[in-house]
Amino acid sequence: xxxxxxxxxxxxxxxxxLTTQSKKDQPVYKDAGRSVEERVNDLVSxxxxxxxxxxxxxxxxxxxxxxxxxxxxxxxxxxxxxSLIYFSSNPDLRNRLQxxxxxxxxxxxxxxxxxxxxxxxxxxxxxxxxxxxxxNPELVKQACAVAAQEARMSGVDWTFSxxxxxxxxxxxxxxxxxxxxxxxxxxxxxxxxxxxxxGNDLSNGKNIxxxxxxxxxxxxxxAGRDYVYTEISRQTLWDTYMLPYEExxxxxxxxxxxxxxxxxGTPSTANHYILTGILKxxxxxxxxxxSDWGAIAQLCPQGVAKDNKEAxxxxxxxxxxxxxxxxxYDNHLGDLVKEGKVSEELLNDAVRRVLRVxxxxxxxxxxxxxxxxxxxRFLLPQSLKIAEQLSEESIVLLKNENNTxxxxxxxxxxxxxxxxxxxxxLLGSWRAQGKAEDAITVYDGLExxxxxxxxxxxxxxxxxxxxxxxxxxxxxxIAKEADAVVVCLGEKAQWSGENASRSTIALPQIQxxxxxxxxxxxxxxxxxxxSGRPLELNRLEKLSNAIxxxxxxxxxxxxxxxxxxxxRINPSGKLSITFPYSTGxxxxxxxxxxxxxxHQGKYQDIPxxxxxxxxHGLSYTTFEYGDLKQSALKVGKGDKLSxxxxxxxxxxxxxxxxxxxxxCDPVSSISRPVKELKHFEKQMIKVGExxxxxxxxxxxxxxxxxxxxxxxxLELGDYYIIxxxxxxxxxxxxxxx
Length: 737
Ligand code: GLC
Known about the structure:
Layout: H1 2-25, H2 36-46, H3 49-55, E1 57-61, E2 83-86, H4 92-103, E3 112-115, H5 128-132, H6 137-152, E4 158-159, H7 183-198, E5 211-215, H8 234-250, E6 255-258, E7 262-263, E8 266-267, H9 272-282, E9 288-291, H10 308-318, E10 323-324, H11 329-338, H12 344-360, H13 374-377, H14 381-394, E11 396-400, E12 412-416, H15 442-449, E13 455-459, H16 472-481, E14 484-490, H17 509-519, E15 525-530, H18 538-543, E16 546-549, H19 558-566, E17 623-625, E18 629-630, E19 634-635, E20 641-649, E21 655-664, E22 676-685, E23 690-697, H20 699-703, E24 705-706, E25 712-713, E26 717-723, E27 726-732
Parallel strand pairs: 1-2, 1-10, 2-3, 3-4, 5-6, 6-9, 12-13, 12-14, 14-15, 15-16, 19-27
Antiparallel strand pairs: 7-8, 11-16, 17-20, 18-20, 20-23, 21-22, 21-26, 24-25, 26-27
This protein binds alpha-D-glucopyranose.
Residues 66, 68-69, 116, 160, 213, 292-293, 498 line the site of alpha-D-glucopyranose.
């Protein structure tokens, strides 16, 4: 026994010695016991110029599934490539490519695989614009965590999400991808998404690196056309677009994506002020910036570079670290360094940034994605539950005349319209690996909900567009027999998203004409709308007794919709973007500057007020807001200030209510919006119950404003806190300059 023990101890000592020996031999960058910075610096010191350049390139792996970017299948992917966009939904191909990087290259640097996981990976959630209408960032964070796990288990390490572009022009198809018209809303949901995707540990095999996009100001695309000029003053850059990025960078986002748009003469992708001055120097971001697809090469048509080489030089020196599919950095960066047009120091900084994210993802220790079955990866019960709840809370009841909804007494329901049995269009744009067959149609949801309660009749009535009215007859026939008519209209999925601008936000005429015919029957008309943008509804509003904006609800599809129509669910969604009265009103948004003549300058031919305001949303119950109670009338430096409002459920059904807290600074050294959202909170309030909503105010953060250089100011004076139609005044006695 004793000999065995001695033998074991000798063996142990020998193996420790071996380990120490082998540790001594292995390079620092391969030693997981060393800090990330030590490993990054060691690895960069070993790399050749070519190896450094290749780390700063991203190709696709196979054909792109984004129709706007046709990528040639890259057959001869160099094993030294830094990143690949990964379109497969299982890790096999990825692991094969990764094996080449790990075993067939001199240093064995793993590839980072990216993909557009925008509102779910295989479990597709509502589009982001809808998610914001839930006013439930915690739930959005959970959805992003599920998306991250599905993606990471499928071979994706990095998502090009969240999109946090403040957008106020519904003609722009990409309004669907962000969180609406308000800077604070985009900031809160941007942070929630980053935390959901990245979690607390990027290396645990379940989280993925996030990417803020499109940095910056893309939502101001002129007239809602895509990829075009954006006129953005420095003041607007800071008071409208920067906040979501500043907050999400502070939350620790791993990467950002430079945008396509030209910012008042300097395209984002060549804009040193935003990419380096603000992002890297002022905010200290230590991750990396990837260009949007082709954005570097696009500096040529934008008129600031004569060829790809000059484009590469301008983008790199501005602060774009990685080239997505331009073939500019791989072809020209090495020469630019040799010619002294790009410094070796800046090159090393960019490589360090990319390697830092790779180390944090644990890719050097775990370069391969473990095998798993689709059943283990996708559509897990908990994921579906989140999908259902997020869709329920995103749906907005816009109109409900005489409590048409919920449909309690209907025994025969006509379900009509091109959206009624669609699965594909419910998923919206950027559906990643989502499958149409996973989506529950509105009709199926209604059929399940009204089983044994009502008989359903179906007719398509018409297509989404076109002029064929031959389906009207059958639609009218079944509507005649029904107690209520549910009309399911809206947009095709491809009518919003990238490169999907529309000159009008009205639905095609044929859809409106169908409702006109049905209205003639004198039955209650319930309009269900699925779209990726705010719609022009002033004509349809007059024809409908109730209107439910279901957005593009994802795979939960018809279930939450039917639950609300039947009254099983009390709708709680509120708009994250204004619904204009008509396209001609655009841009119209709540946080606008005051007119010099508030009572003049209106349109002669249409109302100047939007049809449905930001934060509008009805419930099946009623909520009564009590008086605002403020902890102080005057506040000085360092003082605390809190405002409370009691909200009572005075109706006869439990419901969730979101209280939006706005501020107004009527007199300031620069003009400020008529009101600004600074806080929101959602709570369940049972029948007869009163809940207190409280806003703890940080004077500078809430009342202060930023100037054109991003300096935050708090000025003396009177400020107002606004909730619904109530407001209280607070006098601020301190100022900061
Ligand atoms: C696209 C989009 C961007 C996306 C990228 C990769 O052109 O602008 O949002 O992440 O290319 O698909």
